[in-house]
Design a protein that fits this description.
By secondary structure, the chain is of the alpha/beta class. It has one domain: P-loop containing nucleotide triphosphate hydrolases (Rossmann fold, 3-Layer(aba) Sandwich). Helix content is 38%, strand content 18%. It has nine helices and nine strands. Strand 7, helix 7 and strand 8 form a beta-alpha-beta unit.
């Protein structure tokens, strides 16, 4: 158990349901869900590592993977990373695939790019723009319009263009369910970013007793290289954290 829920007595945590705001201690996180304040306990090291990765201006670690068993707190840490990036004026693109998405094509990049305005696509050369618009269901398909290299090249240019205006975070929760076409396109594009301000924050489920990595994990590792991926394992809570949890509940 990672969360302590309290009734909020003031509005300092914001009004949006699910809005997340950090509290002063770097080892803690608080956010509001409806009328409740939720405090995170026992994840200080993981929160600090994720925040340090975001703040590293010259880091060659293109991606950070938060790894752990189901229900252990990966999404909480991932969500804090998104919030921290937004506080630092990063543009954040979010994708949360589900098991049913894994067998489809380009669902992940469609979700990631759903809030990107058409004007950003318009800046792409026509041979690139068409395949990416088809892949993300912005345009009807024609013969040859979903050639993977064309989609990957277009995504490379689109992300690079967005990054000219500021740092860009691609955030994927439950990335083990990312469809193969999206994983390949994202890996292709991330590997070819030159500015160093386009990064991937992904949470991966690691099943107990399963040694085999997900297909998406393998795709990213192969394209980016292990030296360019930071990994934050999320394990069981410490005895001290459990003691604090007991005291506060």
């Amino acid at each position: 158990m990672l969360l302590v829920v309290r009734q909020v007595l003031d509005d300092r945590l914001g009004d949006d349901q699910g809005a997340m705001l950090p509290i002063k201690a770097s080892s803690q996180l608080a956010f509001r869900v409806g009328g409740l304040r939720v405090d995170v306990i026992g994840r200080g090291a993981e929160l600090d590592r994720t925040r340090a990765w975001l703040k590293a201006t010259s880091s060659d670690r293109t991606a950070l993977f938060i790894e752990g068993e189901p229900g252990i707190g990966k999404t909480t840490i991932w969500s804090d990373g998104i919030n921290q990036a937004r506080l630092e004026d990063w543009t954040v693109l979010v994708c949360r695939p589900r098991p049913s998405d894994a067998g489809l094509s380009n669902v992940g990049i469609t979700d990631l790019l759903r809030n990107v305005p058409d004007e950003a696509f318009a800046d792409l050369p026509a041979p690139q723009r068409g395949p990416l618009e088809v892949a993300t269901l912005r345009k009807e398909a024609g013969d040859g319009d979903l050639e993977p290299r064309a989609v990957g090249t277009a995504l490379t240019a689109l992300l690079a263009g967005m990054a000219v205006r500021g740092s860009l975070l691609l955030a994927v929760d439950d990335a083990q369910w990312l469809d193969a076409a999206s994983a390949r396109a994202l890996a292709f594009a991330l590997h070819r970013q030159d500015r160093g301000n386009v990064r991937l924050l992904a949470a991966f489920r690691i099943e107990t007793g399963t040694a085999r990595a997900s297909a998406a994990f393998t795709t990213f590792e192969s394209a980016l290289g292990r030296d360019h991926i930071d990994r934050v394992p999320v394990g069981p809570m410490s005895v001290a954290a459990i003691h604090r949890l007991i005291l506060e509940t």
